[in-house]
Amino acid sequence: MGQIKKLEKLPPKREKIETLSILRQLSNSANVLGELKGIAKTIPNQAMLINAVVLQEAKDSSEIENIITTQDELYKALVTTKKQPAQVKEVINYRKAIFTGFEIIQKQGFLKVADIETIQKTIVENNAGIRSMAGTVLKNDRTGEVVYTPPQEKSEIFDLLSNFLEYFNIHQMDLHPLINLAVLHYQFESIHPFYDGNGRTGRILNILYLIINNLLDIPILYLSSYINQNKSDYYRLLNKVNNTDEWEEYILYILKAIEETALKTIDKINNIKELLEKTVNIAKDKTPKIYRKELIELLFEQPYSKIDFVVNKLNIERKAASRYLKKLEEIGILKSVKMGRETIYINENLIEILKKY
Ligand SMILES: Nc1ncnc2c1ncn2[C@@H]1O[C@H](COP(=O)(O)OP(=O)(O)O)[C@@H](O)[C@H]1O
Ligand SMILES: [Mg+2]
Q: Of all protein residues, whose CA lies closest to atom 18 belonging to ligand 1?
């Protein structure tokens, strides 16, 4: 059975979204997130951190939608211009869409409908845009049963989207942004404005919302790993709000996801920082002549590297770049693999860390 009632505009009734248990969980989630924001600032090169976290999220968020890839395939895709299998391409697109969204809000500080369309289009690579034909329904993967019917009329979709964006862009003074994030995510998924890509687009909107509200400076907190591990609850709770207008359990789920993923990300950052320091020391010690801070940072920005990258980053000749990479392999910092005619140098210690999360 589909839902009985029509999707309502925001905001929901306050007593439904700000209960005592929600407030209790909220303070934990907000504290850990604050800690994450602080720790992120201590990483000298922010691109390093963003790159590492964003690719992982692209993989995890796509996995929720059954688009499965490996980290190795993705990193390889980033170092070649070769045509990639569809699934790999879609994850690489997702990564690009996160950066696109981040640029948009850095530039203008708010979102328009067209921006959401840009993000979605970057992921799915088609121009279908907002749904204009009826017929889209959400089904239970396993049973095929229709669980939710989103608004069908184009005018209603636009109406709900503009209400959504008003809530998204205009600072809601009296409610905590993390509660709003949960509310907004539900609302976006329930409007389901596109034929496809709604889940992935909605999860990008979450990180943009954190940045707009100054809860983070850079896009490094993602809920997808938590959602993957608690996937049936994710669907069940979105559905529970559809059917019963009971928000508490769903909001608690999102707040818990924020707390857990923030803790994991803090741990990850600490590990990366430690490895960076260790790597710098080894390089300084064993190959003082070629040691350059930018070179080591490059291996953390792009854990799969190649001569061209070094040439561009350090502005040096190919021959020198090649010699540097070989030297770093000799002292155990990198490991080379052949990919077609090219040699790729992998920062395996970093990959090990990234794989853990
Ligand atoms: N009952 C529901 N109510 C609202 N949204 C739902 C419900 N069930 C699933 N969703 C959302 O729909 C998303 C899937 O929509 P889809 O357009 O296929 O996105 P994608 O292509 O990114 O997979 C899920 O990730 C989830 O966020
Ligand atoms: Mg889909």
A: 196
